[in-house]
Amino acid sequence: MTAKLETAPFDPRFPNQNVTRYCYQSYIDYHRCQKKRGSNYEPCNYFKKVFTSMCPNAWVEKWNDQIEGGTFPGRI
């Protein structure tokens, strides 16, 4: 079994090497997409693929906990 490894494509909104904002924005976009379109809407998975490849796991876990607890600082 072979696995195909990919990373997020270039996004001209984030031209620098620091990908923190790209990570955070993709996380927000994924949750906004799911909220608006539903959890079964396939194009939302693009944002999930991006944030899972760009964001540290600890950040994602923290943000998920904050969303569940109602303390997430972003607007979703």
TrEMBL record:
Domain of life: Eukaryota
Localization, UniProt: Mitochondrion
UniProt cross-references to Gene3D superfamilies, sorted A to Z: Cytochrome c oxidase, subunit VIb
Principal place of residence: mitochondrion
Record-annotated disulphide pairs: C23-C55, C33-C44
Annotated keywords: Disulfide bond, Mitochondrion
UniProt family annotation: Belongs to the cytochrome c oxidase subunit 6B.
Function: Component of the cytochrome c oxidase, the last enzyme in the mitochondrial electron transport chain which drives oxidative phosphorylation.
Protein name in the entry: Cytochrome c oxidase subunit
Organism of provenance: Haematobia irritans
